[in-house]
Amino acid sequence: MPYSLAERILVTGGSGFLGSHLCERLLANGAEVLCVDNFFTGTRSNVEHLLDHHRFELLRHDVTFPLYVEVDQIYNLACPASPVHYQHDPVQTTKTSVIGAINMLGLAKRLRVKILQASTSEIYGDPTTHPQTEEYWGNVNPIGPRSCYDEGKRCAETLFFDYRRQHGMPIKVARIFNTYGPRMHPNDGRVVSNFIVQALRGNDITIYGDGLQSRAFCYVDDLIDGLVRLMQSPDEVTGPLNLGNPHEMTMRELAELTIELTGSRSKIVHRPLPQDDPRQRQPDISRANALLGWTPQTPLRQGLARTIAYFEGMLTESEGRVSH
Ligand code: NAD
Ligand code: UDP
Ligand code: UDP
Q: Which of 5, 58, 123, 304 keeps 20 to 30 A from 252, CA to CA?
C-alpha cells in the first residue's frame, strides 16, 4: 500500500535482521524511514544499500534513553532476538524491552501516533497448549536464563495495553514466531542459520537434544507483510496477533532438509538441549487471517533455498577475504 510523501516512519532496531527488511519495504511503499539502532546485534552493512536513498535516515541511538524526533508512525523492533545475543547481557536485554518500550510509548504519546510492538512467541514460554492461540497466557520461567527476554517482552506488552487503557493510544502488538531469511546473523546461534552455515562448510550439524522438539518457520518477506498490514489495520485492531507460519517440523527434519538442499556431506551430531528450551511451538494464525487477510505465502523449501543462496554469497566473500 503506498504512503503519502509526508509519512515519516520510525523503525527502532532497523539495522537488524527483520528491521532492515522492514525499512526496505516501507521505502518501497513510498514512506520516509528513520532507522534507529545502537548496532548491538544489527550492522550498518544490513542497511548500507539504503544509505543513499533520499527518504532514508540512520541514527545511532540506544532506546533505553529518551528519543525526541518527529514521526507519524513507530515500529518498535529494538531488542536482541537470539538466545546467544540476549543472554550475553541479560540486564541490558530487560532494559531494552522495558525502558525501551516506555520511551517509545512516551514518544508515541507526545506525538499522538500509532506504535507497533514486535513481541514474540516466547511470551508463551514452554507452552502447555498446542498450537498457541492469543488467549493462552503462557508458561514462562520468571528466573531462568531465557527470562530476561521472555519476561521483558511480556512486560512490554503490559505497558502497551496500559498506555492504551490509560491514555487511549493506538497500539499494535504482533507476536512474532520463528522467522528466517537473508541477513540472519551467521553466528547468532539460531537453528536455521546454524544448520545452513554448518552444511555449507561441511561441518557437523548440531542438533540439540533428541531433535524431536518442533518449531514453525516463517520466511521474512511474509512476516514483514504481516507487520505492515497490522500497522495499517483499523485502530480497534490492537492485537496481540500471532504472526508466523503454521508449518511445523522437528529439528531433525529441518537438519535433513538443509542437508538435502545444500547437497552437503555434513553429518548430524547431537549436543545437550539448552535449559528451558520449548518442546514444541506452532502459531494459530486464524486471528491474523481473519483481521488482516494475511497468510504466509512462501513454502519452506523456497525460503530455505533463498536463505542458503544468501549465506553462500556471504561465506564465499568472507572466506575469500581471509585467503587474501
Ligand atoms: P536482530 O538482533 O537482528 O535485530 C534487533 C536490532 O535491535 C539490532 O539491529 C540491534 O542492534 C537493535 N538493538 C538492540 N538493542 C537496542 C537498543 N537498546 N537500542 C537500539 N537498538 C537496539 O533481531 P531480529 O530477529 O531482527 O528481531 C527484531 C525484533 O523482532 C526483536 O524485537 C525481536 O524480539 C522480535 N522477534 C524476532 C523473531 C525472529 O524470529 N527473528 C521472533 C520473535 C520476535
Ligand atoms: N519520551 C521520549 N520522547 C518523547 C516523549 C517521552 O523519549 O518525545 C520518554 C521520556 O523519557 C519519558 C518516557 O518517554 O520518561 C515516558 O513518557 P510519558 O509521557 O509516558 O511519561 P513521563 O514523561 O511522565 O515519565
Ligand atoms: N537448535 C538446534 N541446533 C542448533 C541451534 C538450535 O537443535 O544448532 C534447536 C534449539 O534447541 C531449539 C530450536 O532449534 O529447540 C530452535 O532454536 P532457535 O534458537 O533458533 O529458536 P528458539 O529456541 O528461540 O525458538
A: 123
Say if pTM beats, i.e. exceeds, 0.90: yes
Does the CB atom of residue 78 touch ligand 1 within 6 A?
Answer: yes
The total of other beta-carbon atoms located within 10 Å of residue 187's CB is 11
Which pLDDT does position 316 carry in this prediction?
A: 86
Q: For 267-302, write each residue's pLDDT tens digit.
A: 999 999 998 888 999 999 999 999 999 999 999 999
Cα separation, 307 vs 301, in Å, equals 10
Q: Ligand 1 atom closest to Cα of 178?
A: 40
Q: Which amino acid residue places its CA nearest to atom 15 of ligand 2?
A: 103
Distance of CA 277 to the CA centre of its chain: 18
Share of the chain above pLDDT 90, in %: 92
pLDDT at 321: 46
> Who's near 103: CB < 8 A, 6+ residues apart?
63, 64, 65, 66, 67
Domains of the chain: 8-180+219-245+278-297 (3.40.50.720)
Please indicate whether residue 149 is annotated as part of the active site: yes
ipTM passes above 0.85 = yes
Chain Cα centroid distance, residue 228: 14
Q: How confident is the model at residue 189 (pLDDT cuts 50, 70, 90)?
A: very high
Instruction: Assess whether the C-beta atom of 96 lies below 6 angstroms from ligand 1.
Output: yes
Buried b (16+ CB within 10 A) or exposed e, 129-144: eebbebebebebeeee
